[in-house]
Amino acid sequence: QVHVVESGGGLVQAGGSLRLSCAASGRTFSTYTMGWFRQAPGKEREFVAAIAWSGGRDYVDSLKGRFTISRDNAKNTVYLQMNSLKPEDTAVYYCAATANRRSSYLTEDAYNYWGQGTQVTVSS
After folding, report:
1. Cα–Cα distance between 62 and 49 in angstroms, integer?
2. CA proximity to 11, closest of 91, 116, 69
3. How far apart are CA 97 and CA 103, in angstroms?
4. Quick one: which of 118, 59, 66, 111 has its CA closest to 94?
5. From start to end of the chain, where are the E strands?
6. Could you read off the pLDDT tens digit of each residue along the chain, which spans 124 residues?
7. In this structure, are strands 57-59 and 118-123 parallel, antiparallel, or unpaired?
């Protein structure tokens, strides 16, 4: 069992930045692919970004250039740096992990383990 815990959410003004962190348990963190998803009020959960065990990154097109995913295997942690935040970025942000090799990591069903989420609120 892998435990995933997000942190770093909060309230920020439009144009500001936040860095989310996600810590995952396990001695084989470096072999996990990690993903970030978000769910805005009244909407379905959507893919934000992923970073593979190999270091390869994927982003949803609409967020490229503003959000950056990274990982620190020594700390068993993945980060989501969010810049130039907009009110429409308001959502609960979820971190997910998988040790399985997939053809794609852009959908929820690619991941086995999920955190409880962290709230990000962007005020206008």
Report:
1. 11
2. 91
3. 15
4. 118
5. 4-7, 10-13, 18-24, 33-39, 46-51, 57-59, 67-72, 77-82, 91-98, 113-114, 118-123
6. 899 999 999 999 999 999 999 999 988 999 999 999 999 999 999 999 999 988 999 999 999 899 999 999 999 999 999 999 999 999 999 999 999 888 899 999 999 999 999 999 999 9
7. unpaired
